[in-house]
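During the reporting period the student researcher (J.K.) took over the structure-prediction task from the postdoctoral fellow and processed the backlog of single-chain submissions. One of the processed entries is reproduced below for the supervisory committee.
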Amino acid sequence: MSPKNLQELLDTSGNPVELLRNSQIGAYIYPVVPAEFSNWRREQRAWRETAVLFDQSHHMVNLFISGKDALRLIAETGVNSVARFPVGMAKQLVAVTPAGHVIGDSILFRTAEDRFESIGRAPLANWLAFRAATGGYDVDVRTDARSPMRPYGKAVQRELWRFQIQGPNAWQIIEQLNGGKVEQLPFFRMSTMTIAGERVGALRHGMAGAPGLEIWGPYGGYEKIREAILEAGQEFGMEAVGSRTYASNTLESGWIPSPLPAVYSGEELRPYREWLPVDSYEAVNSLAGSFVSSDIEDYYLTPWELGYGSFVKFDHDFVGRDALEALTPETLRRKVTLAWHPDDFAKVLASPAYPGGPGHHAFELPVANYGSSNYDAVIDGDGRVVGVSMFTGYSSNERRALSLATVDPDLPLGAEVSVVWGEPDGGTRKVTVAPHEEIAVRATVSPVPYAEVAREQYQPGWRTASARPAAATGTPAA
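J.K. obtained the following structure tokens:
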């Protein structure tokens, strides 16, 4: 019999590492939105110099949670405190396993006393839905799945459209759309505004380092709202950002978007694996990169290793609390940016030009990842693994190839390490991989966010908690 859930798939396939490293899912793409509207370099420059329209309508799961136990479900699932979580506020919710390893994160909106919306990738949405269904909570949960990666011309329908207006000129565009002044709310607070005669939801955000808004409304108004935004933004140099460019923003802002969800081991999680269908994100997830271990738990990460330490609050009971309290955060790896050496980066890019030379793994521009979860070994001068690089690409604003990584705590800023680019033994059987040779690329341990504007203007803790868990007592926005 064919496996019907993740647990059965793992039971029949042997080592989960081999299963995930040889996944046949293909490239993880951002669906529906065209790859480019102008070109990816121009679109990157716009979020630094003028303004951009990010279209987030299709690549995330919307999970709607309502009912008298909705807040209790959130509190007992997430590491975040809910002691101060009024209606009209959002949080970056992070959930861990009983062993304290990250399952996933999302942006959680509190839209009413007993209503929440979780917006993000599938791992946390799936975990919340499972806990709601099996934990004895009096809640209703509705899932609006992400759009298909390859719709092949078929109509795509979501419950909500979702855009972001970001960049130095964003607020001028926002006020022109509204027909007047718009209050600059505190970070991650919600309100409403008017666009093309329609009242839409608005969240104060800052993805590109300057004040901006995330806005949303019923999907039927998608085209009308989008056209109105682009028309208002024309005089301010606004660019629509395509799906090819969108994900590269995180290289400058410092968020690691797709760590491996830590659900493939542990007897306490067996019921969850039996609940997850065989075609779930977790079952088809593609693991890529030069870091290879036979133990799947070597790919798991704690909140501190991903820069989420400031979100962890021990003022409530939640799954994984005991495990996190037992950790010594100062001894854990920390999030950094790795700035690739220009000469070594040039060797990777030049590889296809030399038929007789070494063939290195392709470096796609501007985002070079070739799996759903990416783990490249970071090594020191002695060849010792001192971290993993987890998201790689190129910023034309910084004129640098960059990696977001988590590294040993004793590696200072400015240290030189190497990122091993490619996979051992010519590569795995993933359809995104062609035979190649690995190459060790020199890189400098650098701050996160790498973009100076983001480091100086972001809300403390928002994608910035890279260095020391001393910040873990901290950010009110979390």
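The committee noted the following: The first strand starts at residue 51 and ends at 55.
J.K. will present the remaining backlog at the next meeting.
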